Amino acid sequence: MDGTAGVSGRRVADESVLDDPDTFAEQDPGGMLRFTASAGAQVRESAALAAEANLQLLEDEGRPRAVVIAGIGTAGRTGDVLATVAGPRCPVPVIPHRSAGVPGWVGAADVVIAVSASGRSPEALGAAEAAHRRGARLVAVGAPDSQLQSVAERARAPFIPVPRRAPARASLWALTVPVLLAARTLGLVKVNEADLAETAARLDADADRCRPTAESFVNPAKSLALGLAGSIPIVWGSSPLATVAARRFGDTLSANARYPVVTGALGEAGRGRVGLLDGVFGGLVESTRDIFADPADVEADPTRLRLVLLRDGGLNAEDDTDEPLAVEERRADAVQTLAERRGVRCDVVTAEGGSALERLASLVAVPDFASIYLALAHGLDPMAVPAITEMKELANQ
Predict the structure, then answer these.
(1) CA–CA distance from 201 to each of 77, 187, 317, 354 (Å)?
(2) Domain named SIS: which ranges (predicted)?
(3) Three-state secondary-structure class, residue 240
(4) What number of other Cβ atoms are within 10 A of residue 16's Cβ?
(5) Fewer CB near the terminus (10 Å): N or C of the chain?
(6) How far apart, in whole angstroms, are the C-alpha atoms of residue 219 and residue 205?
(7) How far is the CA of 254 from the CAs of 9, 24, 309, 359, in angstroms?
């Protein structure tokens, strides 16, 4: 296979494309915008499918010693979501696992949740097989009539089908909701029907705000995309919940828009990575450009950092002190001040909503759309990523 087949795009983003929705059908033939707009519907459908699965088997055997969520890519992110929504007061460890098989200590006292949008990822299949051999309780989430469903049937384990209508990266909510509801059955999270309904409504509302026909000056996703165009994005989350959203944004910026990106927790960034603001891509680094050079030979807009700060001012219901919130807010204020002093532009997305799940949705929705609009501005098809396909072929996955 030709490694450059299907690779295209413009080095400089064309802002005019984003206010010409008639061109989207041509530039987004796979429908990534449409799939992303279905996030609210994914929440509702997955909740209904989980309700039809025989999750009672989990509850009958009581609380596990630990829960392992096995998967990679977007499927792996579901484990991060569960660990964050469950919070530090969760009565058992919640462990995302992104390698084939399961940790060596997993046994009959534990639960393994294997997640794969396609139902055939080696990581999820290996974990499901290992859980079955070791006598651990198993829950499988993935495409119906897949290899993963076959493993679940052999193990007589609950299987929650996720209809494969979109790439995994556009199916975050379809994969996440079953994981959360399995954990609820085990008594690990307090996610009720009202939380799911409010989360779905939040995703619907953000999809409407970010719709293709909304012009850039009123569309937060288009505005964010235009701000990021030509930059090196740094995305930091102010809390554990916001950090999950930051890493999700890094996933979609890389896959959809093909942008290099730095992501992580703001607390960790303050111990080292904040030094990026002083580096050669920062806003105040003295230019070495020859003032007598021919303007035609000089790059008009050298690449600079662009900071995206995801702020979550909410507290987990289990917390009994405002101190974690105060620390996170002070850090967020400090990094915004630093960025301003260094001449690095900063975009802020602030969480809204009552439950942890709704707040997460409010931090994920606009960035998801922004990654697609950024791809379109560069003339890239956000659905077709030749390198991903080629990588799977080369690795025989």
Answers:
(1) 22, 25, 21, 13
(2) 54-191
(3) helix
(4) 10
(5) N
(6) 12
(7) 14, 20, 17, 23
Q: How far apart are CA 380 and CA 190, in angstroms?
A: 41
- Tell me the C-alpha distance between 18 and 15, whole Å: 6
Of the candidates 132, 133, 134, 79, the one whose C-alpha atom is nearest the C-alpha of residue 105 is 134
Helix (H, G, I), strand (E, B) or coil at 34: helix
Cβ contacts of 232 within 8 Å, gap of 6 or more: 259, 260, 261, 262, 281, 303, 304, 305, 306
DSSP state of 142: E
**C-alpha dist (Å) from residue 80 to 110, 179, 211:** 18, 11, 28
Domains in the chain, please, with CATH? Answer: 15-30+206-394 (3.40.50.10490), 37-191 (3.40.50.10490)
Distance CA(92)–CA(70), nearest Å, equals 16
SS3 assignment, position 115: strand
Q: For 117-167, how does the pLDDT look when each residue is reduced to its tens digit (9 = 90+)?
A: 999 999 999 999 999 999 999 999 999 999 999 999 999 999 999 988 889
Kindly report, residue by residue over 67-117, the tens digit of the pLDDT.
Answer: 999 999 999 999 999 999 999 989 999 999 999 899 999 999 999 999 999
φ/ψ (deg, to 5) at 84: -75, -45
